[in-house]
Amino acid sequence: MERAKVVTAHHEGKNVFEEGRFSRSELLDQLERIVRSKHFRNSKRYPTFLRFVVEQTLAGKTEGLKERTLGVDVFARPNHYDTNEDPIVRVTAGEIRKRIAQYYQEPGHEEELRIDLPLGSYVPHFLPAAHAIRIAEHDNHRDRSDASIAIAPLLEHVMVGPEAPGLTAKQSVAVTGMGGWRKIFLSGLLTLLVTTAAVGAILLRNHWRDQGIKYFWRPIIASGTPALIVIGVHSLDERGHDEPTKIHESSMQDGQENMLAAMVRSDMVPVSDIVSYSEITDLLTRRTHVYRTKGSADTTFEDLRQGPVILIGGLDNVWTKRLVALLRYSFFASTQLESEIRDSKDPSHVWKFDNMQLVSGASRDYAIVASYFDSTIGQHVLVVAGIGKAGTQAAAEFVTSDQDLKSWLTEEKVPRGKNVELVLSTEILDGQPGPPHVVASSIW
Prior knowledge:
The chain is of the alpha+beta class. The protein has three domains: about 5-125, no CATH class; about 145-210; about 210-235 and about 270-444, Chitobiase, domain 2, CATH 3.30.379. It contains 14 helices and 20 strands. Strands 5, 11, 12, 16, 17, 18, 19 and 20 form an eight-stranded mixed beta sheet that branches. A three-stranded antiparallel beta sheet has the order 7-6-10. It has a three-stranded antiparallel beta sheet with strand order 13-14-15, with no helix packed on it. Helix 5 crosses helix 7, helix 8 (about 210-220) crosses helix 14 and helix 10 (about 270-285) packs parallel to helix 13. Residues about 1-20, about 135-180, about 200-210 and about 250-255 have low confidence and may be disordered.
């Protein structure tokens, strides 16, 4: 039986292989287990990409696993497309790494051979399960001992003895006599330095943990008052037709809505908005912050003035449209079939979404994320709103992902306490949103 090889390194553009313990068929079987898992099966892009790089590696064609080549071969991009403008390969690889990690973290997969896509490379690594565990243990041990490794070379220069060059016999005897005390002193010093470094590392990790989340969410968490989550709704009239998004002015008798009107009126919330809502409420619950929820059609101006506000949904949320209209980026529905986000400072910046495009194809949705103090209601507002449903989901993923938030804050070097508004882009494949990406920002 033909035996596959284990990729163990990637050096100077050449693959370094080591004889493995599994066959090509075993590797392909493992590949199929991964791509058929819940982490991959609802997407076409991720399984296609992973299959391609694995099969090319098994065929010894790793020299072609470069960003531009993959963009052309896998995603049918033009030969000279701009990889900075269209980072589909990097984005897809990053998402695959995350999904592979989720797959192997699930019970029952610990003993399976491992297929990895290491950072900085598109050449997959194939590892036995035990080898993967040893690598993880080694990495953890290395993280804990970094301080002692750094200190060791310094100690080599202070350790002296009778054989040290340049010492007289009398000096050598003196040094030898103090050897025991020197060893005790140096051992104690080493222990102190390692302990200090370890404590410092822990404090540093704690300091950076959730820094992105804290920046966007601190005004809400620290407010001391319950947050009001306003979720967009679709409303139907008596004939079942979709009504324009507005605050309800229902059939009233003596200032009260009658039962017939209440039964006829139907507020619908898209499942995608419920998914976004659950991610946000999960974050608030983990931080023990109280919140209440209302539909946008039933929310009043006075409701918004009671505490921090979280707006979910774009064109189906009347309060999102009203408040965001005062910001640089805002929603606009040119027709019922086409909607967009406009830049009030640069009319050439328009991000459009066609409501009539096919769900089964590949497309792109856009969203607005904003964290700012709104002087109109006198409260802090967090906007999580897409043009389409995929945009809202991508926005919710962004504001609840510390990694995404921290990466953007670090890249843009945003000062503490600033208001921010972002335009996000997400690629849609078969109706499912991909990772969010910031395409425009305003900081004030």
